[in-house]
Write a structure and sequence with these properties.
Blueprint: H1 9-15, E1 30-33, E2 37-39, H2 43-56, E3 60-65, H3 72-87, E4 92-98, H4 99-102, H5 115-126, E5 131-135, E6 151-153, E7 156-160, E8 176-177, E9 180-184, H6 186-200, H7 217-232, E10 247-255, H8 262-273, E11 277-281, H9 289-300, E12 304-310, H10 331-345, H11 347-352, E13 355-360, E14 366-367, E15 371-374, E16 378-382, H12 388-392, E17 396-402, H13 409-420, E18 423-425, H14 440-451, H15 454-461
Parallel strand pairs: 3-4, 4-5, 8-14, 11-12, 12-13
Antiparallel strand pairs: 1-10, 2-9, 3-6, 6-7, 7-9, 10-17, 11-15, 13-18, 15-16, 16-17
């Protein structure tokens, strides 16, 4: 965080949105039977389903995650992968994680060799049955990370924004809530697996993390630049099937960078085509400028907009009173300030009920949901946080679901109802905690940032 205070202006230029053209025509899709798509209700069901799929796997397991943590939850999954390989030696198992994240410790903790140390430890213990590779989207973690989603296990796709650690897997009493969808469709599974295999397998920029003597990042920089260029023009192989009765159109979309980003275009396209209702989920209220504009246009068209975010105490960076404060703990307060400004600007729509802002909170658990539901017939499953960083820097993807027969409506409504059980509607911006009552360390840092307008740069980067 302190380094951000001296961040160069080129970062801001990279993140500032440019004017974009009209949304493209609807992309090709897989025709997936609606009954092959299910939503899992909670982290416990997610963990159980993941471990069950791993245990039953016969041909392939391809997992792409921001990280697999060196804790009980991460070890449970990794040991399950090794056990599956031992049962079926022909099973191919590949795990891709962010290169930078795997090689450092947790923010605010002492320097360590990171999760890669555990990967090497288990490889020494169990052998070479699980291939773990690190994907560097940029030369520095600050400038972009691996944020692809969609785990392929045989012909099933488990799609979630979650990573793999204790809280995502609801170990030890706490959880971090995400969305979890299981899609059973061979063509979709082949396409998601094929994308990462084409881009990452055998790529000089994507080295093994489970073997000794991993290269230094500096040595990878030329290969990283080539990888990023390839990813910016990459696409999923989709046949363009026409859904029949009882089927849903499912389109996988990649996204990297501001220009030519199919996922960003889909987000804007959904918001612009909305005529009745939008549900927007994001863990951090820090919408990119084009998304804010599209939301404003939808409100002017008369659409009802529901936005659910985590209460600042449900943010994964929140530091409770009484614990040592570090600068990363400023982020939940920045996001709350963003929400306050948005609520104040749209006070009339809040009062009328056309705009509904929901704050999710459940004890000391945290909130990590993202995605869109539009007019009861379209949905976006994604790991995209709908913030400027995801918009411009991170490697993202999503599944666009078009459901003209409303076959998935009951599933979406059940998910939305379950979320609201732990959410409170914000009636007025004054219901949020006043900055005057923030902890002294937070007030001091906010004043320091706002004096030089670096609060905006921090929002863009984080």
């Amino acid at each position: 965080m302190n380094s951000l205070l001296n961040a160069p202006g080129r970062l801001a230029r990279r993140l500032l949105p440019r004017r974009r053209g009209a949304a493209p025509d609807r992309p090709p899709a897989f025709a997936v039977p609606a009954d092959a798509i299910t939503a899992l209700p909670d982290p416990a069901a997610f963990r159980q389903t993941l471990l069950q799929l791993i245990a039953q796997a016969e041909r392939r397991i391809v997992i792409v995650a921001l990280y697999l943590q060196d804790d009980d939850g991460g070890r449970e999954v990794l040991e399950a992968l090794y056990a599956a390989k031992a049962r079926r030696p022909a099973l191919r198992i590949t795990l891709y994680v962010d290169w930078h994240r795997a090689r450092r410790g947790l923010i605010g903790q002492a320097h360590s060799e990171g999760n890669a140390g555990m990967y090497r430890e288990l490889a020494r213990r169990f052998g070479d049955g699980v291939e773990i590779r690190g994907v560097p989207v940029q030369g520095r973690e600050l400038l972009g990370v691996l944020h692809l989603k969609g785990w392929v296990i045989d012909d099933a796709v488990l799609y979630t924004g979650a990573s793999l650690n204790d809280v995502y897997l609801a170990r030890h009493g706490r959880y971090r809530l995400d969305r979890y969808h299981l899609l059973r469709h061979r063509g979709l599974a082949d396409t998601l697996a094929g994308f990462v295999e084409r881009q990452f397998a055998g790529n000089a920029a994507v080295p093994r993390l489970d073997t000794p003597d991993a290269p230094a990042t500096r040595a990878l920089l030329p290969a990283i630049r080539e990888l990023r260029q390839s990813l910016q023009s990459a696409s999923y192989a989709v046949p363009g099937e026409t859904p029949q009765a009882g089927e849903v159109a499912v389109t996988p979309l990649p996204g990297l960078g501001r220009n030519g980003n199919a996922l960003n275009d889909a987000v804007l396209g959904l918001l612009r085509e909305a005529r009745e209702r939008v549900i927007l989920l994001t863990p951090y209220f820090n919408l990119p400028r084009p998304v804010r504009a599209a939301v404003g246009q939808a409100l002017r068209r008369g659409c009802r907009i529901d936005i659910m975010v985590g209460d600042k105490t449900a943010n994964d960076f929140y530091i409770p009173p009484g614990q040592p404060f570090t600068t990363i703990g400023l982020l939940p307060y920045l996001y709350e300030n963003n929400l306050r400004r948005f609520a104040r600007a749209h006070a009339h729509q809040l009062v009328s009920g056309q705009l509904n802002l929901w704050l999710w909170r459940d004890g000391d658990n945290s909130y990590h949901l993202k995605g869109l539901l539009v007019d009861d017939h379209a949905a976006l499953l994604t790991g995209h946080n709908l913030n400027p960083r995801a918009w411009a820097l991170d490697l993202e993807n999503g599944l666009l679901l078009r459901d003209p027969e409303h076959r998935l409506l009951a599933m979406h409504e059940a998910e939305w109802a379950a979320l609201r059980r732990h959410a409170t509607r914000l009636a007025d911006y004054r219901a949020l905690e006043s900055p005057r009552h923030y902890p002294p360390e937070v007030r001091r840092l906010l004043r320091r940032l706002s004096r030089v307008r670096l609060d905006r740069l921090v929002n863009w980067l984080l």
